[in-house]
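Our platform keeps sequence and structure together, in a single record for each protein. Nothing more is needed to write down the fold, since each code stands for a local backbone conformation. An entry from our holdings is shown next, in its original layout:
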Amino acid sequence: MTEFTGVKVQNRRDLASAIAVGGIGIVLFAVAVAFTWYYAAALFLFFAAVWHGVMLNALTDLLGKIVTFPHWLRLTIICLLLAGLFSGVVFLGGATIARQATALSNTIKSQLVNVKAFLEKNGVDTSYLDLGNTASAPAATPATSETPGATVQHNLPSASTIASSGGAIVSQTFKLILGTVGAVGNFFIVLFLGLCFAAQPNIYRKGLVWMAPVKYRGSTAVVVERISVTLGRWLIAQIITMTAVFVVTW
């Protein structure tokens, strides 16, 4: 009887511990989802920086198979080559891309005007379409005679309308400036963190392995190494593919 009671108590304890572990797991999962939701931008920047660091490290290791320079010198050479390639693309293709974007915008606008004219010609009401083509609108027929003594209303905007319009312009300008500053700042954050990861990859790799439990650190180190090698090879393959597409297109 005493043995049966002990087994029953043990079963209750196991059930209570399982419920507690399940509840803690659910709470931790909800916290992780909420953290990811509210800090998605920061996590995206972090993963972009990791991707950048892995790419630089893979290119540095690839260069190490050709020359026997120290790691920091090979990384410097890779950074200078990438900076030169980026500057060349911006210098050679920036003006062309801007002209093509302007031509595409004008072409789309003219085609929209043609579509609207075609629909109106076939009896389709297009008054709800506002294409901003006020220049093609027929001019209003001037009055043949004026009534003596009639007052002419110029419909000037009120002071409140002018103030609200000015406030909207200032608000949009500040939003544009802040968005540009934020984008440039994020770019330099990714660039700086990527360079830090690529400059001393072993330190960050050891830190990542240290976060795992002691008995799993050996297998964690193997997994991290395989992920690093596989991701580096994939990035190099993507660079080769993009280079081939660029050469063939050019």
Summary: The chain is about 80% helix and 0% strand. The longest helix spans residues 71-121. The CA atoms of residues 27 and 33 lie 10 Å apart.
